[in-house]
Amino acid sequence: MERNHVTISGEGPRTLVFAHGFGCDQRAWRHVSPDFERDSRVVLFDYVGCGRSDIGAYDPARYQTLDGYARDLAEVLDALGDGPVSLVAHSVSGMIGLRAALLRPGRIQRMVMIGSSARYLNDPPGYSGGFEPADVAALLDLMERNLAGWAGMLAPLVMLNDDRPELTDELIDSFCAGDPAVIRAFAEAVFYSDSRALLPAHAVPTLIVQCRDDIIAPPVVTRYLHHHLAGSEFAEAEATGHFPHLSHPTATIALLRSYLDRDD
To answer: Which sequence positions are flagged as catalytic?
Structure first.
């Protein structure tokens, strides 16, 4: 609980865990999670190296791949006590959550994946992830040489919503808030991850959310997830960019409510 700076608020019969994406922390959910506190126990946390997590717990070997972050999430679920939870996962947390669900079968009863991708790299001829290996290598190199420059380049492209520059500024600050070496290592684990082989084993009912003009998770990758996750549902959010919970919180809440509050 201390390692991942777990915070719990609200009360109700449902436990709802919000998992942030790369380069952010639990504060990214501040416009969305309070709406659920009236009828749910809301759980927020920070991955190690993000937000107010215990940076002393960082182990380069453990966090070399997404498996280390999934183990952390599984241990957070253990610390919450018995009973099923629902997981709302942004970006890479979709695949981290998938791994945690496999580590703790039956614990996660329902998932929402917002802007998630099973594989970011193109793998021709049969798979398009949106990024060429050379592009990712250049991105990681820029992060290592000039983190602020990388953040200033990427943030406007993934946030969009140019009419609200404060959102881009917030994302830049978030990208640059942690230890540069840890942030880069996390980015490498994210962009070189490949979760495609795990998809057939995922048995958790899942809603896959696609936003307009999302360059991190374009429709080709979210449709791939929908096709390969048995029993999954697909929804297009009334939002633009990769961070709908920051840019379009009202629409995001409505979409989450329509799925999570449903009896089926």
So the answer is: 91, 214, 242
